[in-house]
Amino acid sequence: MEFSVSTPRYHYHYPKPTTTFSLKPPNSQPSSNQLRRPKTIPTPPRPTKPIPKIPSNPFKNLSNPTHVPTPPITTSLTNKLWLTSKLSPPPPDIDDSDEEEEIEEVKYNEPKKKKPGRPRVEFRQEGKIFVGNLPNWIKKNELSDFFRQFGAITSVILIKGHDSTERNAGFGFVIYGGPNAAKSAMKAVEFDGVEFHGRVLSVRLDDGGRLKDRAEERARWIEEGDGDGGVEFRARSKWHKERQSSRNALRKVMETAPENWQAVVNTFDRIDKPSRGEYGLMVKYYARRGDMHRARETFESMRARGIEPTSHVYTSLIHAYAVGRDMEEALSCVRKMKDEGVEMSLVTYSIIVGGFAKVGNAKAADDWFKEAKERHTTLNAIIYGNIVYAHCQTCNMDRAEALVREMEEAGIDAPIDIYHTMMDGYTMVGDEDKCLIVFERLKECGFTPSIISYGCLINLYVKVGKVSKALEVSKRMETTGIKHNMKTYSMLINGFLKLKDWANAFAVIEDLMKDGLKPDVVLYNNIITAFCGMGNMNRAVRTVKEMQKERHRPTSRTFMPIIHGFARAGDMRRALEIFDMMRMSGCIPTVHTFNALVLGLVEKRQMDKAVEILDEMTLAGICPNQHTYTTIMNGYASLGDTGKAFEYFSKLRNDGLEIDVFTYEALLKACCKAGKMQSALAVTKEMSAQKIPRNTFVYNILVDGWARRGDVWEAADLMQQMKREGVQPDIHSYTSFINACCKAGDMQRAAKTIDEMKTFGVKPNIKTYTTLIHGWARASLPEKALRCFKDMKLAGLKPDKAVYHCLMTSLLSRATVAEAYIYSGLLSICKEMIESGLTVDMGTAVHWSRCLRKIERSGGELTEALQKTFPPDWNSCHTLYTSSDVDSDYEVDVNSDGDDEDDREFASRIDNVMMTDEDSLRHG
Q1: Position 652 pLDDT exceeds 70
Q2: Which of 308, 363, 368 is nearest to 336 (CA)?
Q3: What is the pLDDT of residue 218?
Q4: DSSP string, 41-72
Q5: What is the largest CA-CA distance in the chain?
Q6: How far apart are CA 236 and CA 840, in angstroms?
Q7: Calpha distance 27→260 (Å, rounded)
Q8: What is the Cα–Cα distance from 147 to 848, expressed in whole angstroms?
Q9: Are the C-beta atoms of residues 741 and 778 closer than 8 Å to each other?
């Protein structure tokens, strides 16, 4: 199992139902989780007479739709199992049809008539593309993953080679489905000439020529048939001695080389007529590999021979579906067992309970566990371990404890796997005390802690943020002679990544290298995350290329932190380049990947491109989630476009997505930014109806909205309501209220608010002082403004450009004849600006020069000092600006920077929630 980059969770799936049902764990990985059932039953032919020169016509009855005879199949089972090669990844979730099955769909109403009498058939299929120059070793799932980004795929067809059915001929077809099939095909054709596993692909729309040629060939075969029809089979022979030796050979190869599937299949093919025992062994073998399709094919072949399956064979087939997490098919097998009167054993129930535990369906697992208790008087530790694991994965530790207690009362000793399962469950809920109790109890019961035991403790401390204790457990483990593995190292690395301690994270990576462990995909993802956290984006991109050179296939989690880093930095060009690089690598973009792009575009105010990303998501078959819509709503809210914000709110609701407090915050922000406070009040009423409490951010948006209108009374009521509901005002709340007081001219209340802030331990920040300075200046009290400026510096805050701009603009705009102390204050502020190297923009310089002419008509010391902060081209442009009309009522807006700050804060909160949701999905 892979580990999360940001919130690690060390999962040991205990107990594993595949380890104790006389089904030894396989040495190879499962090859599929969703495969179709075979449409033909492989029946070995029986020799009777030499094959005639002109073969019989197996398609003679093709014109009769009520009966289609099964053609003889001479291809051995070995040639049908190329999908389960250990060198190939799991097949995709597609219809595994081949070219011949498509041709069978072409029907001829009158096969005996002449060709001109046959109906015209359209062979060109909408949404079908031809893909050429493919590597001979490529598999269907790799081709499907590469082209699935353009739309939903219904089928992938790879033409097999003539010499070997395990290799393709270098070309194939991809068929898109759904209403946008043609559009998806046109989008995919744009990838013509793209490099794919070292080959330059040839992609074009299919013209139907291949289907047409095959259909015409079949039609000639039907018309020119000899009329005999039927298929002859070889007669039965004596095979008992050969069967016994073949059975022994099959058992031997399964025990000695289970990873060599080709040897196993070849040995099975040499059995002339397998019995129930051989079929049962093969079904069990495929179940261990998680190959549902081949297990089902072997099962159906056995039934086609007239061999009725036993409870053991049914259990092996159910085991195959449980390993592949296809519990619907597993239940269909259970229903057939009951219909045929085959009794379900305790092993069968254990596998079903364990299968539902893996998919996280604790309720279904509990129901089958109760049925097992009713059918069997005595249970074992295996089925108890599976049901305990199911409840631990859903964080229902009370039920898990009750089951352990029930097992102990029944006199069943708990194995060490159940201890690990309980520790993992307490880790998920963050209960450190109980996890340590289970660890101590494990040692008291005579068990020796293994690397899994220590790994559970390391994962616990990493999850609760106590990485130092995780290091102590690591050292204790090493003192007992237990070496780290890749999983324990990954947990420590993730712990440091959560703390943004990049140095220690790389130190653990160096220890991993020294121990001789080779980096895997998870480790590379952690390294990339560390570089992105450090801001070294170029190094992160180079790490991806190094990863590909080592033949590790990047995942969407590899590119996610890079895209996120560029988007957060505002470099959307690089973010889109990495996004295209991810798609070229065959990685399917997830909703979180698209959300990172949308968030970056929204922060850059590029709403048109953000909406285009939504269209690409729909075309790729990825549905936007609530965070996608909320981010778009926040973008339109920043622009004050309430119509668009409510439009996407309606889309979110119509899609049945969850509406949370972030969604309502975006709506409130749009209403307040546009000055529609009545609409904002209506939104708050709906929040109350939906039982969504108002938090500090909601109140801040409302207070800021009333402050924009200068309604100090409504703002004061909101401040009192916050206190009544137990919501503590923060620095943003107080600053917005002070802004309302300043706009209303109530400077005494603003001063009292400053004192109240200090009483509650909230320290004013630069924005608070800037707002107050602007208020004193508007009230024509420049001495108060200068005093506030001095208080800000005494508080240890360093004035920024916005403070100087606000103070100088406010004082100069309201002073015609400056008094001595104000004049000296202006001079000192000018000197500070010059020392800080601050330069104002041209518009500000023009306004200040007009104000200076009112104070010093013929120039003076203040004019000379202040002009040093003007732009370098001021001397060449000031004559033009002097003769032009400039608004004399130039006013500074202290909230202009605050809006951007609020947008960044909201985006940061949304981003944190999205990253949290992504981590939860990784561990789900």
Answers
A1: yes
A2: 308
A3: 64
A4: --------SPPPSS---TTGGGG-TT--PPPP
A5: 124
A6: 100
A7: 9
A8: 61
A9: no
Characterize the bridge pairing of strands 202-205 and 195-196. Answer: unpaired
Name the DSSP letter for residue 95: B
How far, in Å, CA of 575 to CA of 325, rounded?
35
Band of residue 217 on the pLDDT scale cut at 50, 70, 90: low
- Region 714-729: mean pLDDT is 86
Q: What is the pLDDT of residue 165?
A: 54
From the CB of residue 474, how many other CB atoms can be counted at a distance below 10 Å? 23
The rounded distance, in Å, linking the Cα atoms of 599 and 764 is: 30
The pLDDT of residue 356 = 93
What backbone phi and psi angles, to 5 degrees, belong to 203? -120, 125
CA angle, 700 then 702 then 707, to 5° = 90
List C-alpha distances in Å: 482 to 230, 474, 477, 485. 67, 9, 6, 9
Mean pLDDT value of segment 598-605: 83
**CA-wise closest residue to 620 among 203, 919, 187:** 187
Structure confidence by residue, pLDDT tens digits, 470-489? 999 999 999 999 998 888 99
Burial class of residue 632, CB neighbours in 10 A (0-12, 13-18, 19+): buried
Give Cα separations from 839 to 286, 800, 834, 835, 843 (angstroms). Answer: 74, 12, 8, 11, 12
Cα separation of the two ends of the chain: 11
Contact 646, 667 (CB under 8 A): yes
CA distance 570 to 610: 14
Cα 905 to Cα 893: distance, rounded to the nearest angstrom: 20
The alpha-helical segments, DSSP class H, found in 305-415 are 311-323, 327-339, 346-358, 362-375, 381-393, 397-409
Strand 195-196, strand 168-176: pairing? unpaired
Distance CA 346, CA 377 (A): 10
What is the mean predicted confidence (pLDDT) over 165-185? Answer: 84
- H helices of 569-695, where? 572-584, 591-603, 607-619, 626-638, 642-654, 661-673, 677-689
Average pLDDT for residues 339-353, to the nearest whole number?
89
pLDDT digits (tens, 9 = 90+) for 770-797: 888 888 877 878 778 888 888 888 888 8
Report CA-CA distances (Å) from 668 to 600, 610, 660, 671, 698: 22, 21, 13, 5, 8
For 584, how many CA atoms within 13 A lie in the half-sphere containing its CB?
18
Pick from 109, 153, 163: which is nearest to 129 by CA? 153
User: Which of these ranges, 96-100, 535-539, 722-726, has the smallest mean pLDDT?
Assistant: 96-100
Report residue 244 as tokens.
């016994």
The residues, any chain, with a CB within 8 Å of residue 325's CB and separated by 6 or more, are: 33, 355, 358, 359
For CA atoms 230, 234, 236, 242, give the dihedral sign.
negative
Banded pLDDT at 321 (limits 50, 70, 90): very high
Complete DSSP assignment for 516-564: TPPP-HHHHHHHHHHHHHHT-HHHHHHHHHHHHHTTPPP-HHHHHHHHH
Q: Using alpha carbons only, how large is the chain's radius of gyration in Å?
A: 36
Digit-coded pLDDT (tens) for 17-51: 333 323 233 444 444 344 334 443 344 444 444 44
Q: Is the pLDDT of residue 364 over 90?
A: yes
Most confident listed range (358-367, 699-708, 840-849)? 358-367
- Asked if pLDDT for residue 118 goes beyond 80, the answer is no
Question: How many C-beta atoms lie closer than 10 Å to residue 87's C-beta?
Answer: 6
Nearest alpha carbon to residue 473 among 482, 318, 90, 897: 482
Task: Compare 647 and 98 and report the one with higher pLDDT.
Answer: 647
Tokens of 618: 């729909």
The answer to whether residue 563 scores a pLDDT higher than 90 is: no
Choose among 395, 401, 489, 487: nearest CA to 437.
Answer: 401
